Amino acid sequence: MNNVISNKKLSAWVDEITKLCQPNKVQWLTGSKNEHQILLDEMVDKGTAILLNQSIRPGCYLFRSDPSDVARVENRTFISSIKQSDAGPTNNWINPNELKQTMLKLYQGSMRGRTMFVIPFSMGPVGSPLSKIGINITDSPYVAVNMYIMTRTGIKVLEALGENGEFVPCLHSVGYPLEPGQLDQKWPCAPINQKFITHFTDEKLIWSYGSGYGGNALLGKKCFALRIASVIARDEGWLAEHMLILKITNPIGEIKYITGAFPSACGKTNLAMLTPTIPGWKVETIGDDIAWMKFGNDGRLYAINPEAGFFGVAPGTSYQTNFNAMKAIEKNTIFTNVALTDEGDVWWEGIGTEAPNHLIDWQGKDWYKGITQTTAAHPNARFTVPANQCPVIANDWEAESGVPISAILIGGRRPKTVPLIHESFNWVHGIFMGSIMGSEITAATISDQIGTVRRDPFAMLPFIGYHVGDYLQHWLDIEKMTDSSKLPKIFFVNWFRKDQNSKFLWPGYGENSRVLKWVFDRTNGKSEARKTAIGWVPSPEDLDLNGLSISQDSLDEMLSINHEEWTRECDSIESYYKMFENRLPQPIRDELNSLRERLK
To answer: What residue segments make up the domains of the chain, in order of their start?
Structure first.
């Protein structure tokens, strides 16, 4: 590797971290398949990974995390900007000088007894003008094998970086140094009060300590691709968003690309890998989670998926709900915190088959159907799989110039008020719609807030690297960078509206292709809509409902606009906007006032 490490800034930083963390050895990862396999084999030998039954699920492995380390820890995730006001009301903030002092003490000798892996990685196709490079230092082989799947890694990235290329330094340690002769944990991590996932936004620097799980440790994902990238995007005039990207082709071969922002539990991955139910239409996947959008020479926004894999939630994924995801994970997949069958395969709640009588649960304990009270898989159990294994991955998913975006979908889980689909009047109105999206809180979450809406602007609330008001202003500024007629149309979708008996009005899943068809035709000016107080809404006859068994009453209800409910919605929005302090952009406030007037 030494002959391709020509970047002096990189060499100096690696030397600095080596002296600080004091690993037993340093290993630069080349990105080769053989190297990846050796790391997996070593973890199997140590008992930290389980090789699944290769005749059932070839190339697949199971990991079990410590029960204290199972998800992103938002209360230990920080935006450490010089000015506290730049972090805004939606982020945890700590003074960067104070936080560095604290973390440097934790990092001192934190990798003793371990190998320090240096992982050069590219977010986006290597060499693409839309891509960015990071260097991930970690003492976790689990992180190393996941980063191999989730990003493009190794020598080719160092070659693209060259002598003077810029990179985002990403430092991670599980925070569990080993003294000579000390036995390691199967899943080493630090106590919760010593976990830090920190973004030094003024320096474009990521430090993570104490957790080995998911977005806390795979620093290319939410940390780089959203929190740091959102700051870079603001400074450089583009968008880094928590959005899927899909490619849709109509029966005569016309192609459109659509992005979509959805909070968790709103069917985002399902939509990205949709199997249409209407004849002649095809949906393919560009990305399931993150979109970077930059202007092309023609003034349109072009998007890339900066990731190379899918890090998906397993529970609820089945051949019925997401056939293409299930096909993708039949081989070469890392599973974390799912249950293990006696045959050496995986199982989780919602997989579509009945639980066997006996399983080994996500904590490594015996689990018996009808007897054990806890779930066999953790609710946040995950699969990590290469994107190119998805059966409907688009042939241009790695296009270096990106793909041109015609429409942006935003949505949430709303049992009432919000119709199945509506289109914004214009770009600014669309940003207003994006600012108020969210999901209604149910009994499964916070009991004293049932019925209220948890707002999640553009599904970015935990991932904006700066003040949320400035983030919305950046979206508004995008319009000034091009001819507004070249910008994508913005639509609000709601698959989750219910009737008076709490039954879903819309069947969802593959039937959502009928809504996508209307969106597709709206971008061509070919489908009709009626003007309402909240935007352009289709009438039932504007949707392709051939072969769909659904009552007229249900259709009328899911496309209706109740002015009393929307007036209450305006009051809720007004209250929510108070958290923006004095940084809510005036055009957004004007849109709320205009909505109130239209509702009168």
So the answer is: 2-48+76-237, 241-308+395-599, 310-389
Using DSSP's 3-state secondary structure scheme, residue 402 falls into coil
Q: Provide CB contacts within 8 A for 203, sequence distance 6+.
A: 96
pLDDT score at 266: 85
- Determine the Cα–Cα distance for residues 364 and 139; give it in Å rounded to an integer: 24
Q: How many beta carbons lie within 10 A of that of residue 212, not counting itself?
A: 29
CA geometry: angle 443, 444, 449, nearest 5 deg: 45
355 by DSSP, 3-state: which? coil
DSSP assignment of 482-531 equals S-GGGSPEEEEE-TT-B-TTS-BSS--GGGGHHHHHHHHHHHTT-S--EE
CATH superfamily of the domain spanning 310-389 = Phosphoenolpyruvate Carboxykinase, domain 2 (2.170.8.10)
Q: What's the confidence (pLDDT) of residue 265?
A: 77
Known catalytic residues are 266
User: SS3 helix, strand, coil % of the chain, rounded to 5?
Assistant: 30, 20, 45
Look at the domain 2-48+76-237 and name its fold: Phosphoenolpyruvate Carboxykinase; domain 1 (3.40.449)
Contacts of 588 (CB under 8 A, 6+ apart): 428, 431, 432, 435, 472, 476, 577
Q: Position 388: which residue type?
A: N
Angle ∠(394,283,239) on CA atoms, nearest 5: 70
**Single-letter amino acid code for the residue at 79:** I
Q: Which of 319, 314, 309, 313 is nearest to 390 (CA)?
A: 309
SS3 300: coil
User: What pLDDT does 451 receive?
Assistant: 62
Which residues of the chain are modeled with pLDDT < 50?
443-448
Beta strand pairing call for 132-138 and 168-173: parallel
CA gap 360, 399 in Å, rounded: 42
Q: How far apart are CA 262 and CA 422, in angstroms?
A: 15
Residues facing 198 on adjacent strands? 78, 207
- Taking CA atoms, 206 is separated from 30, 173, 218, in Å, by 22, 12, 11
The CA angle 177-183-189, to the nearest 5 degrees, is 45
Whole-number Å distance between alpha carbons of 514 and 250:
12
- pLDDT score at 449: 59
Helix spans in 212-262 (H): 214-217, 229-236
d(CA 135, CA 17): 12
Quickly count: other Cβ atoms within 10 Å of residue 72's Cβ. Answer: 20
CATH-assigned architecture of domain 241-308+395-599: Alpha-Beta Complex (3.90)
Number of H helices, E strands in the chain: 16, 31
